[in-house]
Amino acid sequence: MSATLPPFERFAQFRRYMGLAIHPGGDLLYTTDLTGQFNLWRQPIDGRGVPGYPRQLTALTDQPVRDMFLPSDGRSVFYTADRDGDENHQIYRLWFDRGVTETITDAPKSQHFLGGRGSLLGNGELVYADNERKVDEFDVVVKNLRTGAAARPFPTGRRWLAARFDPSGRRIFAVDFRTSSDVRLFVLDRKRGSLDEVLPHDDDAIVAPVDWSADGRGLLVLTDIGSEFKQLVLWDLASRERHVLAAPDADIEEAAHARATRTVAYAVNEGGYSTVYAGRVGTKYRKLRTPHGSIPIALWSSYFDIAPNGKSLAALWGTGTAPPEILWIPLGSGAARAVTDGMVGGVPGGPVSPPQLVKVPGPGGRAIPAWYLRPKAGGSDRRPAVLSVHGGPHSQERPGWPYSGLYAFLNSRGIAVLAPNIRGSTGYGKSYQREIDRDWGGGPLDDLRACAEWLKQRPEIDSARLAVFGGSFGGFATLTCLTRLPEYWKVGVDIFGPSNLVTFLRTIPPSWKKGMTAMLGDPDADAARLTAHSPITYLDALRADLLVIQGGKDPRVAQAESDQLVERLRAAGRQVEYTVFPDEGHGFSRQTNNVKAMGQSARFLVDHLTPRS
Q1: Where are the alpha helices (DSSP H) in 365-465?
Q2: I need a surface site. Which of 30, 40, 279, 597 has the fewest CB within 10 A?
Q3: What percentage of the chain has pLDDT greater than the value 90?
């Protein structure tokens, strides 16, 4: 008698994490969806990294907690939350001793963003960013929490984010976010009213703040000025000199600083794996002992934080063999240890093999990095395969537990998964990342064709049973594959992917419009090119069975993108499964919806790719 294979829900039975921070007293704070919605939790950690029992701090049902920061006195925590994924985040403050929550902002049609440690002064001034004044711009706001008075001291007309005070409170730095590859940093002297750029430059480049230096005379930043990869740099405000602290031949993806001890920790992205280093600023940095894996890309909050005393580091860590867990990493001697255990009941069918890093021969002789999960042994029969394309597109497929264990579930059913990092992906240099800009559906289609051909030529793969899957940009890529490379696919799953680039650009929120226009083009001036690159233009060529999933409150990819696609296909007599989640935005903040959506995707793929017994 053969063993019964576990259903998808067993693979999805785990806690997801959205952000973390270390309390000045040593406890760990994080957001997790254990209760079905992302809420804030606090967990004691002793000096040896031994975890205590976690305690829930918030009990929200329709407001996912997105971001947080801890003031230096440790008496409270600030966090943001939106409603049902509408991305109009409001700021709240929770007092630990009283359990009382204060509403700091109450503008439900506007977005508010915290800047992290150093955002609150002892006199009660809080600095943050919002778009209350003008929906397509973001201002730096300095609000006195004692009097309620608020000021907007930075120039208008930009998208200011990530604002923080210096240790004296005299100056504020803030990011001028223009595009994902053009991020500039400025410092405002509050007394003089002067605004100075940090590391001024002419070409597009990233200058991302890490923290003020301990004495407030400089800034620790990550920048790719003059380099393919981001380096860790100390910028001296007085001399305007740049001191390179770390410049590996790979991207520094995360960094954190403990001012009290002048300790800095940073993570290097080495081909999709993360390597962590730490030490005092300006000294030789030591490689820390961590498992072979990576830090997931954070959507809202940070997955990387250093203790204020500089003795330890917390990081969310994925290995591809189980859901990501939070590691407690000592900055002295000793190895990292997991302080969470989010997989309820253990990994189904474990141990799960980690994904294999492969190089797919791409256009022009360039290799496309990809993660491959070989199908489990199934005799001499060839097996089906799924090509999974990540979102972003400026993102990166990493070892983890993608889509709530979907890859591991498919693999348990004898289905291979190839998850590539096509042009436009981060982690391989800024030139590679920028190749996709204003070219969605153009050159990247050649990369997707190369991946399909690679699968087709594999001796263990049945080329007649190929599927393509993705969400957001990955959903667009899925629809592009199905309509412009129709000969490869038996089935596809599109999760909130744009189908028409012209209508997509016309319906994105005003706060996203400038950045998306720079990345994609203008819906009027570039209408011909955008139409030629849109999947909806080629719907008549689609042959594969299709599942479409959409959030009813998605502010980025409006429901109309999926509606028009499904209506056109059904009018042509095509069978399309279509599910709309009315209480979700761009993603799934509710655990029940997440499991339902991913479970539907899993069963749809298995039913169409494997013979029924």
Answers
A1: 402-412, 430-434, 443-457
A2: 279
A3: 85
| Helices 443-457/473-484 angle, 10° precision | 70
The answer for 245, left when phi > 0, alpha when psi is -120 to 50, beta otherwise, is alpha
Q: Where are the domains of the chain?
A: 360-609
Question: Which pTM value belongs to this model?
Answer: 0.94
Locate tokens 């730095």: which residue?
173
The tokens describing 434, both together, are 């920028």
H-only helix segments in 334-442: 402-412, 430-434
Closest CA to 421 of 454, 386, 402, 394: 394
Q: Assess if CATH 3.30.1490.20 describes domain 360-609.
A: no
- For the four alpha carbons of 87, 36, 316 and 404, in that order, the dihedral sign comes to negative
**Distances from the Cα of 29 to the Cαs of 69, 89, 313, 479, in angstroms?**
10, 19, 13, 39
> CA 104 to CA 99: how far, in whole Å?
16
Give the residue-averaged pLDDT of 10-19.
92
> In a 10 Å sphere around its CB, with 0-12 CB exposed, 13-18 middle and 19+ buried, how is residue 386 labelled?
buried
H or E, element range at 125 = strand 125-130
- Across 288-405, where does the E strand assignment appear? 304-306, 312-317, 325-330, 337-338, 356-361, 367-373, 383-389
pLDDT score of 332 = 85
The two tokens of residue 449 are 């064709």
Using alpha carbons only, give the angle 127, 510, 69 rounded to the nearest 5 degrees: 25
What six digits make up the tokens of 131?
């778009």
Residue 200 CB partners (closer than 8 Å, separation 6+): none
- Of all helices (H) and strands (E), which one includes residue 140? strand 139-144
State the Cα–Cα distance between residues 608 and 143, nearest whole angstrom: 56
- E-strand stretches of 520-610: 545-551, 576-581
* Cα–Cα dist 307/321, whole Å: 28
pLDDT in tens, 154-183: 999 999 999 999 999 999 999 999 988 899
- Cα torsion through 446, 450, 456, 460, rounded to 10: -150
User: pLDDT tens, 402-416?
Assistant: 999 999 999 999 999
Whether 187 and 172 have beta carbons less than 8 Å apart is answered as yes
SS3 content of the chain, % helix, strand, coil (to 5): 20, 35, 45
Phi/psi for 231 (5° steps) reads -110, 160
Yes or no: say if 307 and 313 are a contact pair by the CB < 8 Å rule: yes
CA-to-CA separations, 61 to 39, 43, 161, 521, in angstroms, rounded:
9, 21, 28, 38
